[in-house]
Amino acid sequence: MAAVPRPWWGVDVWQDAQLYVFVWLTDWLLLERVLLTHLFVILSLYTDSGGCQPTENEGFIIKPQPISPSVKIGREAYLHCGVSDNTSVEIHWTKDGERIQNSVRRRMEGSNLRIIRVDPELDSGEFQCVATNTTSGMTLSSDAVMINMLWLGEAQVKLYHPSNPIAGSDLSLTCDVDGNPEPRHAEWFHNGVRMHRGAQVSFRHFKMTLANVTARNNGVYSCKASNDVALVWSSTHFVLELKAPHVPSIRVRPRDTQVAEGSQATFDCVFDDAAIVEWYAHNQDVPLTNGSRTVIWPNNSLTLNDVAKNDEGMFKCVGIPMHKGVPQQVFAARMGVAWIGNFEPEVSIEPQLDDLMYVVALGSQARLLCLPPEGTPSPKWYWTFPNGSVVADTGRTRVNVESELQIDHVKLQDAGNYSCHAENIAAKRTLTVQLVVTTPPEVHDHISSKLQLHEGTSHVLKCSFRASAWPLTSVTWTNVDSPMVSLDFDPEKGALILKNITMRDAGRYLCSVSSKGFPTVVSKPVVVEVIERLKFYPVPMNTNLEFKSIGRIPCRSRGAQRAIVRWVKINPEDEQRSVPLPTNLRQENNVLIFEPVTYDDGGQYRCVASTATESINVTITVTVGVSPRFTVFPNSTEVLEGHPVWLNCQAEGDPEPHIHWDRNSRANSLSHETPRIQILHNGTLFIQEAYMRDTGQYGCTAGNRGGFNRTEVSLVVASSKDFVPSYNLSGDSGDGTISKTIGITLGAAGVYMILVLSLMLYCRVRRARRKAALLGSRPKGNSSDEENRLDGAVGSGELQSNKLLPSAGSSESGSVTSKNSKLSVERLHFPRKDLSTIMLLGRGDFGDVYLAKAAGIAEETVMVKSLHSQEEATKMEFRRQAEMFTNLNHQGICRVVGMCAETEPLLVMYDYTDWGDLKRFLAATRKDAPTSQGSHPPPLTSAQCMGVCHQVALAMEYLSNHRFVHKDLATRNCLVTSKLDVKISSPSLSKDTYSAEYFHYRDQLVPLKWAPAEAVIEDQWSSKSDVYAYAVFCWEVFTQAQMPHEDISNPDFLYRLEVHEIQWEPPAKCPPAMQDLMRSCWRILVTDRPSFSEISSQVGQIFVDTNV
């Protein structure tokens, strides 16, 4: 075999090179791994020690870092800590490396550490905040901080030099005191008198030196030291007693004492070789003598009786020698008056408690920290059991090392009153805490897990449970399928009340029982099914059909059972009988079709919906006509200033349409320009003399019962330099015109002045008569505050007649601009989170109505109406009311102050008053009204009733002038303030609170006894139907909110209303003129009723007789 040729460098060299490369690569990979491992270890060590923290891009940092606080011992300390990003981060605190366990005295609040009362033994050391990312395990520690505890200890006077003082030597004393921060300096006192630097006295730091002492220097030496936190007097003094010939020698010297205020203090003092012993009070030069409070005994002891706070200070005992020239000897002692503060329930107990009631769960741990009041001397404090025995520092119930009352594994027998006592010689203070032990709640299964309820009925669901008593335990109900819906339930007894059940009440209901200290327990769901009753949806309404068109009137029904719908035409001669449908009419899918519409088709039609068990019907009126059509269209015109203008506009229809003109889409914008601008009988707009302000868009609207038609044109008025406006509409000019103008102006001014003077005189006489009448009707003697408030009296005794009977000139408090003509959700937007419920007022046709607190607005307490209905007609009515109260601006009408429209349900906030609705207020003045005080507020006088009626008349005048209709005017929908100011609102609590005042008619709730026949039966609501309701409102005011026609049932009342047999009789309390006005408001024909402008004027002019 032939040999394989080798490379010229040889095989050994090639193999060695391959081995070298492999070893080199292996070593490099191992080295890289070792380096990375060491680097990770180093970073971990730096991170754990706080020496290195990652940047925000790498995770999170501790921010803010805790700072060492300076706190006086016994006071509160707060250590702040946080992280830049708290996502998946847990924070805890350590002390000297040990994790801190929360207690009442020292606990975490959020990420911060709060120490209620700093203790030098328990709180000395290093504190660190430790943050841990629970996802990655990364841990960061803050810088270590310490609490700088501020304190000042007792001061003592000590002999520094010599050890045995003798006459003629130098005496050095020191004032020994410790504290943090260190005391700055000391002041020295000799027998209570401050010493100053001199030839014999020198000071150095806390040392005092007295040179060449003699018997004259005998006495008591004391000091006073201070730092930034406190000031202390020396508790131990130095007494210098040098002997000298003929100098009185002290044998028993007076001692410092501390006594309680009102008690007795005694000082002993005995001298040898003294001729007389005298006592001096602090800062007094006259010796004390025996008196009512001062007694100097034969042995020279001093007794001070009934010690007062101002007696505190130094008392000097002076020994007067027997020989002249010998120095007196003075030895002083301090008397202090002890005191102790009071417990403050808000700050003297931790955790803070409501009504000093501490609720704990059975088997848990109870801990209470008592913070005793300050005092001198420092009070001694301790806890006692409910039986009065003192709690020790051992056992299951004990005072722990953190000075907390601690009860482990709480039992039912531990319940009771535990008292914290603090006492010194001044007094004893006690703070009692009631310990209540709760048991775990239990919920029993419901008798039935499924209920079938009929729409329109009522039902009560009861929650069967066992738990601690109310208010420690509360019960709530929730509709799982509609959790946002507010329910009416009793949180104490657990009863859920479903009133006037609707389809939206269907769902699964859960009963939740919550006891303090235990998790909430929930019952099994109760499924409520609502059997829908038969009803029209929507209800057919009176309809106008266009002649020769194809007309359609639907009649749809809904209910638990499918209904058969049938249309019939009413016999005009006998309404109880029907006639066959004409040949041009047919029924198709519950829709009555007119093909085509003829004038003979007018009349009454009845839709009947029937099932096997029930039948309903509705009757409507069909009218036939021709909607307006323009025959002559106006043209856009340009005219020179001062020239006449004709804008032609003619229309035809059946009935003949009415022509209305407006400028720039503003209603009644041309009415004040009469007679310069007129609408002629043929519909032409005639401007006799065009002004520059007449430039704009002019709209011609033609309307009849068939509808409206509108067209707009523009008018441009060009300026004329020579034009002078003339008030003579005939067009004459010259001197005659100027003379006539001047004459007319002066004559008008004269008539105006006479009118003003006459009105002033009339008002003055009328005001005086009213004042005399109303003051004369008040009872003699002292009236109650409530009577004074209702009578409208002020401090001077004058009657606030402008509150009870506002003048007609105050009917408008503002104007409604075009900008406010639409509901502005953006302008009225209010955050739902800033709304907190106070109480449920009731339920209306739209949903719940409740009181709430709205943070950040002037009207803090508001009434909130919620929209839960999904029916289009209900939504439109809800928006109509909201728009009405938004656009109106009058002191007698409630305003919309906010809306929550970002999520369902829509919430509209109305302002509210301090006394609530007027009906409740009026009912409270009845003698038969229940009251807890045993007395009733007095009923309104006739003058006050007239004042209420006048306020509402002015507000309704304003409302009707702005083309709004209230539809539900009654005392229940008016609010009253404590000043007897009345505001028109519309809570309309038709589903529960005032459900008896509404009647379900044609699938809608109507205020049957407050509405005229045309509104209830024909659904024709107008300002004249509000006039009818206003008379019923006045009837309520004068009868203290009695129910109108209480003896007539709603079905009977409806029948009488249809046949015009309702007889209204004004209350006898009304003034005769008011009775006549109310009768005119109740007239059957709409055109016979007065307008609100007439009503407000007449009510303001009615004189209230004193004897009424």
From TrEMBL:
**Gene Ontology cellular component?**
plasma membrane
Q: Which residues bind ATP?
A: G842, R843, G844, D845, F846, G847, D848, V849, K865, R972
Localization: Membrane
Q: Where is the Ig-like domain?
A: 64-141, 168-227, 248-317, 345-432, 441-527, 548-623, 628-716
* Comp. bias intervals (Low complexity): 807-818
Annotated positions binding Mg(2+): N973
**Topologically, how does it sit relative to the membrane?**
Single-pass membrane protein
Listed A to Z, the keywords are: ATP-binding, Disulfide bond, Glycoprotein, Immunoglobulin domain, Kinase, Magnesium, Membrane, Metal-binding, Nucleotide-binding, Receptor, Signal, Transferase, Transmembrane, Transmembrane helix
Residue numbers annotated as active site: D968
* Superkingdom of the organism of origin: Eukaryota
Domain Protein kinase, which positions?
835-1104
Protein's UniProt keywords contain Metal-binding: yes
Q: What is this protein called?
A: Inactive tyrosine-protein kinase 7
